[in-house]
Amino acid sequence: MLTIRLKDGKDKAARRHHPWVFSGAIDSISEDEKGFAEVLSTDDYFIAYGWYDAKSHIPLHLLSWNRNDKADESLIRKLTRESIARRKAFFSLPDTTAFRLIHGDADNLPGVAADAYGKEIRIIVSSRFADDNLHIIAEEMNSCLHPSIIEAVTDKQFSSLEGISERIRHFRDGKEAKEEGTRENARFIESGIWHEAAPGKGQKSGFYCDQRDNRNAIERYAEGKTVLDLFSYTGGFTLHALRGGALSVDSVDSSESALRHLLFQIHLNEDKGTIPQRSRERVTITDTNAFEYIRGVEDGKYDMMILDPPKLAKTKGNLENAMKAYKDLNRIAMMKIKKGGIIATFSCSGALTREDFRKVLEWAAADAHKDVEILHTLSQGEDHPVRLAFPESEYLKGYILRVL
């Protein structure tokens, strides 16, 4: 095991259980090789156990602040079991079979985002730690849950940053296996609505479990409304608006395949009786750039708008331009929506704080010359926990607004 000492004055965040340590905070390393490390202060005070890899853009990830833990493979197994155990309540929900099992650094497993979709588990790998230790995590998850298959996909946004290859790996009975032939979509329910996710395709793991509570929240406002679902993807918000009694929904996305899947899921839920019959007749899909589409919207056409854009600030370096884009999007929506209309607006950019997002909305309202009130403050679901010591784990921010 490596021994790493942190510089005086550079170890405060680590002592407070923040999991990221950058090279500038490292004073000395016993050996310059990747692996488990005991992390100490310069006066040999124990801080944590971690994983060191000089080739990672975050060279030292802290995994445990408990000195009684063992810094070896057993720690990864323990962290995996504990993460699953914290989701115990989700396994007995009668109307939901899709939820997050491991939420990266928030569960002390950096670069591991694992979701349950019915009997399948999908993992997004976004760090060298996750890539190196995936077989251990998959084996432990199989031991706990016995899924039909575990599929792990490298996150394209991090592959070049971390220097890991883009690939899809499969595990059956806890062992890596070659996937032969085609596999059916994973079918699952969320809040009583049916969904499917294609294997090895789509954004992230194929579905966004983090919006579960927010989809339920907007459903309450949909009755009798003419709705715009901007950046609709495969229609999570569209389906809830339909179940909530929307008169019509215009679903807009730049992905034609996602919109086709949205229509399939409408038919699926009509057949299951979870949304009103003939819901398909209420939905119009448009394959186009959503930012351009909203500029051409007729004033007062919509009673309700849902704005769920992709991550606009991937790093802090992108933050200024991202804030301008969020402001412009919300300003136009506030100008276009019918008087008294509802806007559900979101940011999934971790680099944008909740305070900054609210400031952006205030600027947008001022520039639109609109009086706007906040009805609900929204965040990610409880299976995507936010650690107080790790504010970066709160990446999803949202508000339900009424434009007066």
From TrEMBL:
Task: Provide the RlmI-like PUA domain boundaries.
Answer: 4-65
Cited Pfam families: Methyltrans_SAM, PUA_3
Record keywords: Cytoplasm, Methyltransferase, S-adenosyl-L-methionine, Transferase
Residues forming the S-adenosylmethionine-dependent methyltransferase domain are 186-346
Q: Mainly localized where? A: cytoplasm
Domain of life from the UniProt record: Bacteria
GO terms of molecular function: methyltransferase activity; RNA binding
A biological process term (GO) from this entry: methylation
Return the InterPro entries for the record.
PUA-like_sf, PUA_sf, RlmI-like_PUA, SAM-dep_methyl-trfase, SAM-dependent_MTases_sf
Q: Where in the cell is it found?
A: Cytoplasm
Q: Name one GO cellular component term.
A: cytoplasm
User: Member of which family?
Assistant: Belongs to the methyltransferase superfamily. RlmI family.
Q: What is this protein called?
A: Class I SAM-dependent rRNA methyltransferase
Species this chain originates from: Candidatus Ornithospirochaeta stercoravium
